[in-house]
Specification:
The chain has four helices and no strands. With 74 residues, it is mostly helical. The chain has a single domain, classed as Transferase(Phosphotransferase) domain 1 (Transferase(Phosphotransferase), domain 1), CATH 1.10.510.10.
């Protein structure tokens, strides 16, 4: 859900790369950023939701219900 939201708001995937191996390596690292200028117009609340959905630690990641109740969606 976090990847889809990231793409919907920015038009680009959070984990880029030129080849499948590079993309997979970036996914496994779990690092992404908001350096693209498009993020200047995206709210802190939206970025917070994305961060909580893209958390690498599954037990810390938001559930669907928690995401639904996030302030950005209210």
């Amino acid at each position: 859900m976090g990847v889809v939201l990231f793409i919907m708001l920015s038009g680009k995937p959070p984990f880029g790369g030129k080849a499948n191996k590079e993309i997979i390596d970036n996914v496994l690292r779990g690092t992404y950023n908001y350096n693209n200028p498009v993020w200047e117009n995206i709210s802190v609340e939206a970025k917070d939701l994305i961060d909580k959905l893209l958390n690498k630690q599954a037990d810390e990641r938001l559930t669907a219900e928690e995401a639904y109740n996030h302030p950005w969606l209210a």
